[in-house]
Amino acid sequence: MSKDNSGPAFPATEAHGLNSGYSGMTLRDYFAANVNIGPYNPVETFKREHGRYPSVGDLAEYIADIRYIEADAMLKARGHD
Fold first, then answer.
1. What is the per-residue pLDDT across 7-26, written as a single tens digit (0 to 9) for each?
2. Over the stretch 30-67, which tens digit does the pLDDT of each residue have?
3. For residue 39, which of 9, 18, 22, 31 sits 20 to 30 Å off, Cα-Cα?
4. Would residue 42 count as lying in a domain?
5. Is residue 6 very low, low, confident or very high in pLDDT (cuts 50, 70, 90)?
6. What domain count does the chain have?
7. How far is CA 72 from the centre of its chain?
């Protein structure tokens, strides 16, 4: 999935004691990390979509997908397709 990450949310600098090869967290990552997944009811939604309850690994991947879908929608709403 190639998406515009809209640059770093918290750019790292030498002043932070980090080397210049570290770019920091992207705004897309920040948005994804802060998604409230509760309203999506991921276990039941997964079950409806796949006909079975998810394993822990399935659920983790499914939640990550939900988080990035919402983060991408937030970036699009800001005008960063």
1. 666 666 555 555 555 567 88
2. 999 999 999 999 999 999 999 999 999 999 999 999 99
3. 9
4. yes
5. low
6. 1
7. 8
- Asked if residues 25 and 16 have their Cβ atoms less than 8 Å apart, the reply is no
Domain of 55? 25-77
Instruction: Find, among 29, 6, 3, the residue nearest to 78 by Cα.
Output: 6
Closest CA to 67 of 30, 33, 26, 27: 33
> Contact, 32 vs 68, CB < 8 A?
yes
Closest CA to 26 of 63, 74, 59: 74
With respect to residue 48, please indicate whether it lies within any of the assigned structural domains. yes
Q: How far is CA 15 from CA 11, 12, 18, 20, 29, in A?
A: 11, 8, 7, 10, 23
In a domain, 10, yes or no: no
Which two three-digit tokens encode residue 54?
């998810």
Is residue 57 one of the residues assigned to a domain?
Answer: yes
